[in-house]
Amino acid sequence: MAGHLRAETRDRHLSYRWEPQPGPQTAFIRSRVFEVVYGGARGGGKTDAALGDFAIHAEANGAAARGLLVRRHRVALEPTIARARQIFGPEGATWREAKSRFEWKSGAVLYFRYLDNDADADLYQGHDYSRVYVEELTQFPNPGPVDKLKATLRSAAGAHCGFRATCNPGGPGHAWVKSRYIDHGDREIIKAPFTNPFDGSVSVLEHMFILAKLADNPRLLLTDPTYVARLQQSGSAQLVRAWLEGDWNVIEGAFFDKWSNRNIVAPFAVPPDWVRIRSFDWGYAAPFSVGWWVVAGEETRLADGRRLPRGALVRYREWYGGNGRPNEGLRLEAEAVARGILERETGERIALAVADPSIFREDGGPSIGERMRRVGVAFRPADNTRVGKAGALSGWDQVRARIAGTEAGPMLAVFDTCRDFIRTVPVLQHDRLRPEDLDTTAEDHVADETRYACLSRVYTPRAVATPALTADQQWERDWGPRRRVAEGWKVR
Q1: pTM of the full predicted structure?
Q2: Beta carbons of 341 and 377 less than 8 angstroms apart
């Protein structure tokens, strides 16, 4: 178990009360920070921490304790409710199936809900809660619906209000969760100032991340000693490390699972005779993405000793049209984007420019592509194949093949200054319904224009050359089996 059920006698009956384990679980429950995210390894006791936190909150605040626990999908609530019965039962709480909530004799209540669609968060407008819990925070592609729930945190009775979330690495929301919480460090309190629009006063809300590791849950390891062994049989060494240690730099279920640090290179002077490509994915309310690439004209040794094979695609510049909030665009008109592109590539000769074919649609006026061409930025429609019967010619297969590269080096590399590529592409996940495609609810704009660039220079991995055979080896290959059969040898 992830928490401790301490036995005690009540009215001649033996009952069990939940207690947190020392370490991160205790830190999570005792924290007075407004917003706390507890994330990392599988089996780290995160769900127990959330449920135990409300049990203690309910005991301290009685009827003023009003909680809401949400997950992305309804089916995911079932194991959480089952565990809640074990923790809340000894506290005198009763599960009300029709209302999907636990009720305490004191009047405290904890609702269990799901947010299958982002619009579901609007249904909670006007609600009041002293605690909001979000399980598996990284399953939300963007923070919009989660942030809306924070507006419900208020208590007329004076109960301490707080937002609590749990999560594992991976999922469509990995990038924004990592950027907002994890990158600041374990248990570092971040202060975010907010200005009151009515009187101009400034208030501060704090948020904090607590790292969960499997080692922090010794009771699970004691009661289920084969748990680690089963995890080790369930995935690659990198994935198991993410599960055991809560490593947020290893992505569970990554769509581009061959991506590694060897695909990231320090900037270098690009030879003027290398072919330059520009790729573009349009966005207005959502971000647009422009990528500038060169095709390595020859095998190149980098400053750190690594090599780039001839024909490798190298991303040397990018422009990401985001406003700093996850998956939100700059809302620039097509002409403004075109002028920005021209400013960034002054003096360069772009041999090929490809863009999403949708920008060439005409809806009662000039298309986006035409408007950009009039400013001086021209594109041709990109091959928009994502997956299909073409096998190696399908878009994502091309990206994967280039990322994997050869023993000589990657066939797709990016300068370490291309931060939005590095932030968004490696963490993209498989679509739950179409595993051969990626989850388009995440920030996939850089990945899309990368796919256009790859399909503009179709890459076919070279077959490994067969070493030449000696005369004796060739004879043995061609005639050895026949001789052994003729001589009565047993052929296996």
Answers
A1: 0.70
A2: yes
- For residues 243 and 230, the answer to whether their CB atoms sit within 8 Å is no
CB atoms within 10 A of CB 175: 24
Contact 427, 171 (CB under 8 A): no
DSSP of 141-180: SSSHHHHHHHTTB--TT-PPPEEEEEE-S-STTHHHHHHH
According to the 3-state scheme, what is the secondary structure of 211-272?
EECHHHCHHHHHHCCCHHHHHHCCCCHHHHHHHHHCCCCCCCCECCCCCCHHHEECCCCCCC
Closest CA to 445 of 258, 319, 267: 319
Band of pLDDT at residue 133, cut at 50, 70 and 90: very high
Q: What is the largest CA-CA distance in the chain?
A: 101
Q: Which residues pair with 442 in a beta bridge?
A: none
Q: Which two tokens stand for residue 346?
A: 């002054």
CB atoms within 10 A of CB 302: 13
Q: What are the residues facing 281 on neighbouring strands?
A: 289
> Which tens digits make up the pLDDT trace of 155-194?
999 999 999 999 988 788 888 899 899 988 889 888 877 7
Supply 181's token pair. 């919480």
Distance between CA 415 and CA 107 in Å, rounded? 58
